[in-house]
Amino acid sequence: MKFTVDQIATILQGTVSGDGSQFITGFDKIEEGKPGSISFLSNPKYESYLYDTNATAVIVSKDLALKNKVKSTLICVDDPYVAFTILLQKYQEMTATRETGISIHAIIEAGVKVGKDLFVGRFTSIDSHCKIGDNTSIHNQVSIGKNVQIGDNCIIYPGVVIYNDTIIGNHVVIHSNAVIGSDGFGHAPQADGSFKAIPQLGNVVIEDHVSIGANTTIDRATMGSTFIRSGVKIDNLVQIAHNVDIGANTAIAAQTGISGSTKIGENCLIAGQVGIAGHLTIAAKTIITGRAGVTKSIKQAGQVIGGYPAVNNAEYLKRSALIRRLPELFDQIKNIK
């Protein structure tokens, strides 16, 4: 990477404050900035680093009012975080190299239809009657079952397991050791106290532009489909149970578990270690804070929910503050008695 600050500002549609002719050769966090690097400032709590950083350039908000002098050249934009993301994406596109071809150590069964410029790595197996689109990369040791459909421009990283009948759209990324289409957790209790497995006959449908993190599991439906809608971003170590429906452009952080038949609305943000009970409906644009336990449906869109059992986050914070005061309140009551 070697671009001038002016060239980067043009890409980001920003304005330059300082010497735009300087060259940028790498990226750094603002607190670790070095000459030749570019960084960004979006969180106000890191603003103090702006005045000390040695980064050649820093992407900042055009509304930022400087409190001190800065050594760096500034690129002023509407949203520094979005701008820096765009810059990283542009750099990745320019530097990425993509293999094509099918390894001699891969196993592709009869009836598989493959598109143009496919890459299949070593020891990957693709079972019969699958359909793989153009420009898709399937890396080493991936296992793909029967009747699976994978669209164009997908990346399937090493160790992924995709069960029979799964349907995957275009521009989907699935990271290592994710499991797509395993049986849902369905077991009927019997009179003698044992459990009998309920056949899981459905599948998983993943729409376009979805990202699925490493070691995440998405269960097939008992009947019908488990749906991951367009634009969903799922972190590592997430469990999504049978017949769940995740709405478009929802983001789910690590170690979250969503129980069966729950429907998540569009544009929701679900933080880490959240637990959501089964057969619930979560309204669009809901934000669920970390480690919350959701036991009831959320019907009003746009709420922030927290705590266990989850309630409106403002109410949860008030309760938490009162709980911290319980020892003090107990001593007061004891003194009164």
UniProtKB/TrEMBL annotation:
<feature type="active site" description="Proton acceptor">
    <location>
        <position position="242"/>
    </location>
</feature>
<keyword id="KW-0443">Lipid metabolism</keyword>
<comment type="similarity">
    <text>Belongs to the transferase hexapeptide repeat family. LpxD subfamily.</text>
</comment>
<keyword id="KW-0441">Lipid A biosynthesis</keyword>
<protein>
    <recommendedName>
        <fullName>UDP-3-O-acylglucosamine N-acyltransferase</fullName>
        <ecNumber>2.3.1.191</ecNumber>
    </recommendedName>
</protein>
<dbReference type="InterPro" id="IPR020573">
    <property type="entry name" value="UDP_GlcNAc_AcTrfase_non-rep"/>
</dbReference>
<comment type="subunit">
    <text>Homotrimer.</text>
</comment>
<comment type="function">
    <text>Catalyzes the N-acylation of UDP-3-O-acylglucosamine using 3-hydroxyacyl-ACP as the acyl donor. Is involved in the biosynthesis of lipid A, a phosphorylated glycolipid that anchors the lipopolysaccharide to the outer membrane of the cell.</text>
</comment>
<keyword id="KW-0677">Repeat</keyword>
<dbReference type="Pfam" id="PF00132">
    <property type="entry name" value="Hexapep"/>
</dbReference>
<dbReference type="InterPro" id="IPR001451">
    <property type="entry name" value="Hexapep"/>
</dbReference>
<dbReference type="InterPro" id="IPR011004">
    <property type="entry name" value="Trimer_LpxA-like_sf"/>
</dbReference>
<dbReference type="InterPro" id="IPR007691">
    <property type="entry name" value="LpxD"/>
</dbReference>
<keyword id="KW-0808">Transferase</keyword>
<keyword id="KW-0444">Lipid biosynthesis</keyword>
<dbReference type="GO" id="GO:0103118">
    <property type="term" value="F:UDP-3-O-[(3R)-3-hydroxyacyl]-glucosamine N-acyltransferase activity"/>
</dbReference>
<comment type="pathway">
    <text>Bacterial outer membrane biogenesis; LPS lipid A biosynthesis.</text>
</comment>
<feature type="domain" description="UDP-3-O-[3-hydroxymyristoyl] glucosamine N-acyltransferase non-repeat region">
    <location>
        <begin position="24"/>
        <end position="89"/>
    </location>
</feature>
<dbReference type="Pfam" id="PF04613">
    <property type="entry name" value="LpxD"/>
</dbReference>
<keyword id="KW-0012">Acyltransferase</keyword>
